[in-house]
Structure formats: structure tokens, C-alpha cells
Specification:
With about 475 residues, the protein is an alpha/beta fold. Helices cover about 35% and strands about 25% of the residues. The chain has 12 helices and 22 strands. Strands 9-8-17-18-19-16-20 form a 7-stranded mixed β-sheet, sandwiched between helices. A 6-stranded mixed β-sheet has the order 11-5-4-15-22-21. A hairpin with a 6-residue loop joins strand 17 and strand 18. Helix 1 runs parallel beside helix 3 and helix 11 packs antiparallel against helix 12. The N terminus and C terminus are likely disordered.
């Protein structure tokens, strides 16, 4: 008979297989022959931004059968200094996504060691139940996440593709190397395009992030940590210093630099002059040598409350939804948990309510921790002394504090117990020191503690525990 089927593109060229994001339709060419003509199949979800949060969201959506388009508007963006620490819940989420982090250099962490000036030994705060964190160079994990995206069926990845907005129920976007604006009706839009999110600007133009300080990042080779396996937090400089291992031989040192000192700390010698005294003696020579011979990477530390997660058919994940100071190291963990939730719930409304409720306390913990560890106002200093005493003398409350830090515990009652425990310890410290200082100084410290509590209560009052914003369904596979 000689008849058959041929697969051809829309310009009539014969092809051997379907390209990503395409399907076919039958068109009869003659009585004996017909062709299967390739036509684009609109995605059910458009993920704008292919960082770690965007890749995780794309994989989570694809896991449940959602046809997903992942757009990366800046594929040639140079490597940048960004998050490198995952708390245990984030590690578990990486494993659920099928990411094999054994392929990249990394380090395991057991918790934190806090170094207060004048203390004979650091305060060691291990993760509960012996769990471990993961640390690595950000760019290496990102490459691994994109490798996983390529492996998961149902995801079309378009480096250079751009989100062009929404008109009514129609999502508009461009694929790489094309000026053609494509449309998808009723698609879920996922904003995962970072702190300067273009998606958020379209739908929530009134909210902006603010710079609270700057971070200087330094890689040091062959540096032996005082307590291996624990991230070191050094207190007593103009800002806290975070030191952690990211590989067998590499250690990252992060200096939190107030904006007022930025110009004087731009050089390695300026950083060492301002921060060198807080390093343990065994680490000083290696860090000073690295500051003299290596380039320091800089990033602005921005804060934006996670008070807008989306509406209708738009959802935000990761830094697009909000971001905290990196001292708490919870940014990437929250981003991965955002993606997990988005892939699990049925509607954007459910996603918004759950994530606002579950990130409220971790965000507050981050703000409180940074203020207590960096500010020199009487309230912050008094509470810092109280927390130091609490962490040293009450291992149960210290363990609960770590559960809050890692986002394992997100209840307001648990946070209140820790905060009130710190206030109680601070008041005890005030009582002990009142005999050694003037009445006026003690009164100023007490007034500062009251002012800190008022600031915290005001911050809590401004954060809704949940919201009914959003009505649209999260995209699912069609039957």
C-alpha cells in the first residue's frame, strides 16, 4: 500500500522525535498518507527564575504530573556569593527531590559554636537528635539542581527565556532565542526570581526589601576550626562573623559589615583591623593571610518580610517571597520548603496560608537573633547576656532554641518560651550586676530590655498568622 505516518515540524521539516514542551496533531496529506504535525503544548506552570528555589519548585510540580516551563532570564549571570548552608529540614528536602549532593564537594555540620568575647570556651549548640546540616559552594549546588531538572520528565528548561506578565487568565512568556510571545491560559505562575523579583513587582508593587548591612565573603584553604563540625559565630566585632566548612579543605568566613563601615572595610587590611581581634588565636594567621592574598566577595544583606506569598494563580517561593539576614542561615531551607509545599497543596490559597503560618516564627527568630548579636543598644546587650547564660545553663531550652533556628519548630508558643527564658536570665544578670554598677546604668539596661520587648510585640502585631489571599488552583496534570 505504501502509506504511513510522518512526524514533521510546522515548517514541514521531517524530524525524528518531539522537542521538549511540544505535542502533535494529525493532518491527512492524501488518502494514503498523513503526518503528525508538531505543535507547542502550553505549560500548566511557568516558573520564572531558575535558581535553587525555582529548580526545586519545578521538580516538585513535575513530580505530581504538572507540565512545567522553567525560565532563566539571566543564564550568563556570573557566579555570586549566596547561601551555602542548609539546616537538616532542607537536607531532607534535597534528598526527596533526588539531588545527589555526593557529586559535589560539601561538608556536614552538627550545629553552631558561639564565641562570646572574654569567655574561656565557646557555647556549643548541637542540632537536636544528632541531625546534620549541609554546606557547599552555592554555584556547585545550583549546577547540581539544574542537572536534576534535566533528568525529571515534564520540565522544559529555557535558559534565556523570560516571563512577560499576565493578561487576565493568560500567562505570557518568551523562550530563549525567540522574540515570539507565547501564551498559556490558566497556568500557574511561580515567582522564583530572587530578592529583586520582577514577578513580585508586577503583583505587589508597594513592598520593597531594605539593606541592613553588607556581607564580605572569604574562602580560606586548610583552616582548622576550633571545633570541627560546627559553624562558628564570633561575637564582639562591629558585626557578627560566621565561619563554616564547605569542603574538605575549604572554609568560608563571612563578615557582617554595617553600612557605616563599608568604605573603611573594603580592603582586606580594613576588614582585619575591624574584625581580627574576635578570631580564636589558632585561626588568626590563616585568615589574615587569606585577606591579604584573596579577593573578597561582597553581597548586600537585605530584609523583606514574607507577608505576600501570592494571589489567584500566582505564587512566590524563596527570596521572592521574602528574605532574612543570613546569620540564621535559614534562607535556602525555607526556599526548599516553599517548593515542597507548592508541589503538595491543591490551591494557591492553601499554599499562602500554610507558608505564612509556618514562616512567621522562623522570620522573627532571624530578626531577633541578628539584632541581639549585632546591636549595641542597652536592650540588645542585656538580652545577649541573658541568652548567653541561658544557653550555658539550660540544655533543654538551648535544644528548643535550635529547633526554632532550623525551622523544625514554628510555633509562637515555643518562641515565647525561649524569649521569656532569655528575658528571665537577663533580669537575673541585671540583679547580679546591680551591685557593681550605678543605679542609673541598671535602670537604663532595664528600660532597654522593655524597649526591645515592645519592638518585638509591635513586629508580631504587624505579621498576619495566615491569609486568605489567593483563590486559584495550583496546576495539576490534566486527565
Amino acid at each position: 500500500m505504501g502509506g504511513g505516518l510522518a512526524l514533521v515540524s510546522r515548517n514541514r521539516r521531517r524530524v525524528s522525535r518531539l522537542p521538549p514542551g511540544a505535542g502533535y496533531r494529525t493532518r491527512r496529506r492524501s488518502r494514503r498518507d498523513c503526518v503528525l504535525e508538531i505543535v507547542p503544548i502550553p505549560p500548566e506552570a511557568v516558573v520564572a527564575g531558575a535558581g535553587i528555589a525555582g529548580c526545586a519548585a519545578a521538580v516538585s510540580l513535575a513530580y505530581r504530573g504538572t507540565r512545567t516551563l522553567l525560565l532563566d532570564p539571566n543564564p550568563d549571570q556570573p557566579r555570586r556569593f549566596a547561601g551555602e548552608w542548609l539546616h537538616p529540614p532542607g537536607v531532607r528536602e534535597l534528598e526527596r527531590l533526588g539531588v545527589d549532593f555526593s557529586k559535589i564537594p560539601h561538608a556536614r555540620g552538627k550545629g553552631f559554636a558561639i564565641f562570646f568575647p572574654g569567655d574561656p570556651a565557646p557555647i556549643v549548640l548541637p542540632y537536636p537528635q544528632g541531625e546534620e546540616s549541609l554546606s557547599f559552594e552555592h554555584s556547585r549546588l545550583l549546577a547540581l539542581m539544574r542537572e536534576r531538572v534535566d533528568e525529571v520528565p515534564g520540565i522544559e528548561f529555557s535558559p534565556g527565556g523570560k516571563f512577560c506578565g499576565v493578561q487576565g487568565s493568560v500567562t505570557r512568556y518568551k523562550l530563549a532565542d525567540s522574540d515570539e510571545i507565547r501564551c498559556s491560559r490558566g497556568a500557574l505562575v511561580v515567582g522564583s526570581d530572587g530578592k529583586a523579583s520582577a514577578v513580585r513587582r508586577i503583583f505587589d508593587p508597594g513592598s520593597e526589601s531594605r539593606v541592613v548591612s553588607h556581607m564580605a565573603g572569604l574562602l580560606v584553604d586548610d583552616l582548622e576550626l576550633t571545633i570541627e563540625g560546627f559553624a562558628h559565630v564570633l561575637i564582639g566585632a562591629p558585626g557578627p562573623v560566621l565561619v563554616y566548612r564547605i569542603g574538605e579543605r575549604k572554609v568560608r568566613v563571612c563578615f557582617d559589615v554595617p553600612s557605616s563601615l563599608l568604605s573603611s572595610c573594603r580592603s582586606g587590611s580594613g576588614l582585619w583591623s575591624a574584625y581580627g581581634a574576635v578570631f580564636p588565636q589558632s585561626m588568626r594567621a590563616s585568615v589574615q593571610r587569606a585577606l591579604e592574598g584573596r579577593r573578597v566577595q561582597w553581597a548586600a544583606n537585605r530584609i523583606r518580610n514574607r507577608d505576600w506569598y501570592g494571589q489567584d494563580s500566582v505564587a512566590l517561593v524563596g527570596d521572592a517571597a521574602g528574605h532574612t539576614h543570613p546569620l540564621s542561615a535559614c534562607g535556602m531551607t525555607l526556599a526548599l520548603l516553599d517548593a515542597e509545599c507548592l508541589g503538595r497543596v491543591a490551591t494557591v490559597s492553601e499554599y499562602v496560608r500554610e507558608r505564612q503560618a509556618r514562616t512567621r516564627v522562623p522570620e522573627i527568630v532571624s530578626h531577633v537573633l541578628y539584632r541581639v548579636m549585632s546591636d549595641d543598644d542597652p536592650g540588645s546587650v542585656t538580652l545577649r547576656h541573658g541568652l548567653r547564660r541561658l544557653w550555658r545553663t539550660d540544655p533543654v531550652l538551648a535544644g528548643r532554641a535550635m529547633r526554632l533556628l532550623t525551622t523544625e519548630e514554628t510555633g509562637l508558643a515555643a518562641f515565647s518560651r525561649i524569649f521569656l527564658g532569655g528575658v528571665s536570665a537577663a533580669l537575673n544578670e541585671l540583679g547580679r550586676s546591680s551591685a557593681r554598677q550605678s543605679i542609673g546604668s541598671t535602670a537604663a539596661d532595664f528600660a532597654g530590655l522593655v524597649a526591645f520587648a515592645r519592638w518585638l510585640i509591635g513586629d508580631l502585631a504587624m505579621r498576619p498568622a495566615s491569609s486568605s489571599l489567593g483563590h486559584g488552583p495550583v496546576a495539576r496534570a490534566t486527565a
